[in-house]
Amino acid sequence: MRKSNTFSRCLLALIIVLISVCSCYTQEKEMPITSSSNEAIELFKEARTLSENFEFTNVMKKYDEAIKLDSDFALAYLFRSLNSRNYNDRVKNMEIAVDKIDKVSEGEKHLILAYKCSYDADEGMMWDHLNKLIELHPNDKRINLYLGTFNFRWEKYEDALNFYKKALEIDKKFPAAVNMMGYTYKSLEKFDESEKYFKKYIDLLPNNAGPYDSYADFLLSQERYDESIKYYKKALAKDESYFYSLSRIANIYILKKNYAEARNYYRKYYEASSDIGPKFIALRRIANTYLYEENHESAVNIYEEYKVLAKKNDSPYDEIIGNAYQGYILSCCGKPENALKNLEKSTMLIETADLNEDQRFELTMNAAMWKSHAYIEMGEYEKSEVELEHCEKLAEKLNNSYMQNMITLLSAYKDIKQKNYDIAINKLDKLKYKGSLSAYYNGLAHDLKGDKEQATKYYESFINGKESGIDVAMYYKRIHDKLSDK
Fold first, then answer.
1. What share of the chain is helix, strand, coil (3-state, %, to 5)?
2. Is 138 part of any domain?
3. Which of 120, 140, 155 is the last residue of a domain?
4. Which residue has the higher pLDDT, 121 or 103?
5. What is the pLDDT of residue 455?
């Protein structure tokens, strides 16, 4: 009898242990949030949900309140960094989060370091941390969301889709995952599926601005411009502080070739922006509207305004970027000697300005590419090659495929200028990321080689592409006119 009682007690103890283990496992399916304050954790969760649903008005305030309650709250610093629109603020908060990783769980550590590697353009280590993170928390809907979004940004759309699907298996009404399913299907050109998810997103959050803005993005991609403007305006009606929609409306007017109206909406975007980051974006896009008109002087002048804003806000990083963009415009419009003067100013600022190590490294690498481009335009090919080799050595330290892509693009352009068309075409065909600039260079190489049919295909790809930015704006009119003459 005594043995039986002992056995029963042992069995009961074993069951209790197993129940405890299962309970812990259930709790640990979500990545822990490490903080000494429960109130801080609740504020963090509120801010995180607001951010996921594109309700940004009180996000930073809540992260600040959480940090005030717990100054060692690493995850709050990380998310504050991710939500900041000011470069220096992003970098500062990221560094604080990294400094505090010894105080967090293993999952939080890998999440923080993955984003840090992304900031540093260390792609290899970024994927290492992300793989370890998903191994730790395969059933956390947000970890699957984050993995999906990293894959989406690196154009691994099928992988992204699988992570978003997993997030929705865990929570079928997870708005952020529904939204990203829409964007991923759009990128895969599965438009019926894409539209279905964007409409589902509106059904989940009918009183939020974000879903209407996302659906408007879809309509824009389908060239349903008037419908798109209607939904962007619906987003603004839901939340007048949702100024992103103003930028999108401006973009539609660019597509309609109404550049004056585009500038009008970008100015509205500039004025509505409470943070410095969107103001810089607005000025860059206003400059682009002038480039579409081949009004290079006005574009360069906008970057004077850009640099004044940078100085006023004590942002040497953005001042250097402003100089670089001015140099690029001058280089492309037949004034490479003037461009080099701007780029020398940038180089001096990089050496003397109050920058952190990552900023200085990034800008040094970009400066080498900017100078290389100017030397190509001047026909100084040996000097261009020296800068490219310098850039190559810097890029090797990072294992950054995107930066390698840019170096190859420049190298191909140098070959085109030297009439080595087949070599250039071969390099362009091997690019991992094929965007608007590669389409333009491919068209140019085939055009100068005498293959007008292939050139036209690449030029049409350039004109009809969904990208926007300084490269498209710079060359759009000349390519459009060339195709119109055929």
1. 80, 0, 20
2. yes
3. 155
4. 103
5. 95
Quote the DSSP letter at residue 32.
Answer: P
Count other Cβ atoms within 10 Å, centred on residue 57: 11
Q: Is residue 263 part of a domain?
A: no
Q: Within a 13 Å sphere around the CA of 216, how many CA atoms are in the beta-carbon half? A: 25
Query: Is residue 161, in this structure, part of any structural domain at all?
Result: no
Provide the 10 A C-beta neighbour count for residue 319. 21
One-letter-per-residue 3-state SS of 163-227: HHHHHHHHCCCCHHHHHHHHHHHHHCCCHHHHHHHHHHHHHHCCCCCHHHHHHHHHHHHCCCHHH
Residue 419, class by beta-carbon neighbours within 10 Å (0-12 exposed, 13-18 middle, 19+ buried)? exposed
Decide which of 123, 155, 187 is a domain's last residue.
155
Domain harbouring 59, CATH code: 1.25.40.10
CB 290 within 8 A of CB 302: yes
With respect to residue 45, please indicate whether it lies within any of the assigned structural domains: yes
- SS3 of 285-354: HHHHHHHHCCCHHHHHHHHHHHHHHHHHCCCHHHHHHHHHHHHHHHHHCCCHHHHHHHHHHHHHHHHHCC
Q: What is the pLDDT of residues 12-36, one digit of tens each?
A: 333 333 333 333 333 357 999 999 9
The residue type found at 403 is M
* Residue 482 domain boundaries: 400-486
Beta strands of 403-451 (E only): which ranges?
none
